[in-house]
Amino acid sequence: MMRHLQYGTPAKVFHWCIVALLAVQYPIGWLMPDIHRGMSPGAGMTFHISIGIAILVLTALRLVWRLAHPVAPESSLPAWQRLSSEVVHWLLYALVLATTISGWLFASFRGWPVSFFYLVPLPMLASDNAAAGRTIDGLHQAMEWALLVTIVVHVAAALAHIFIYRDRVMQRMLPG
Ligand code: HEM
Ligand code: HEM
């Protein structure tokens, strides 16, 4: 399939919507009340789950769009940067999916009735299972940290292109 030379508007809108949602998702995750036995999800947790589901749905749509509209790395970059940027980008997709799906599994194993912003009840991915819940809790935390580290690498690379290489890589993801 032919690879486009630049990102189109849908790719940019998906990118920045997901960035904005992740920027509120982490603080909510850290600030919402800790989980203890027998509790049911409060407002903080319901918002965390709802925003997480929005991130999952947008990322799935974005991935489908991306697979249908391949974009080549900036051709002026050295080979190692073209390769490493693609590795980091696919890792970001994979880690966002792993974080959201492990979170959803966690809520399901706790037997929580979860809803999308109190509007739409969400299906359980699994039935009540305390032991599996503990395992998946560790997985959600590991994935959330792995994603954060990868985001730091990604943003550091973007900053390096702006301030050190002074090329047009950042422009590729900006409007216009
Ligand atoms: C990419 C999206 C997501 C990110 C970045 C994220 C991040 C976080 C963070 C930072 C915490 C706090 C855990 C800690 O103390 O270290 C957390 C906990 C939690 N998240 Fe998520 N989350 C995401 C998606 C989801 C989704 C989609 C669900 C459920 C449908 C979910 C369910 C939970 C639950 C149940 C907890 C509490 C368990 C615990 O304290 O470890 N998360 N998440
Ligand atoms: C302020 C923060 C961010 C900046 C400045 C930024 C910047 C960029 C830039 C310039 C590109 C294009 C790279 C290229 O042309 O090769 C890009 C692509 C990408 N970014 Fe970000 N980004 C940020 C945050 C994030 C976050 C939080 C995620 C997490 C999901 C993310 C995921 C991606 C992905 C997956 C691509 C590749 C798109 C594709 O090829 O399908 N970005 N970003």
UniProtKB/TrEMBL annotation:
The chain crosses the membrane at residues 13-33, 45-67, 87-107, 145-165. InterPro entries: Cyt_b561_bac/Ni-Hgenase, Cytochrome_b561_oxidase, Di-haem_cyt_TM. Its main location: membrane. One of its GO terms (cellular component) is plasma membrane. It is a multi-pass membrane protein. Keywords: Cell membrane, Electron transport, Heme, Iron, Membrane, Metal-binding, Transmembrane, Transmembrane helix, Transport. GO terms for molecular function: electron transfer activity; heme binding; metal ion binding. Residues 7-176 form the Cytochrome b561 bacterial/Ni-hydrogenase domain. Its cofactor is heme b. SUPFAM superfamilies: Transmembrane di-heme cytochromes. GO terms for biological process: respiratory electron transport chain. It is found in: Cell membrane. Belongs to the cytochrome b561 family. This is Cytochrome B.
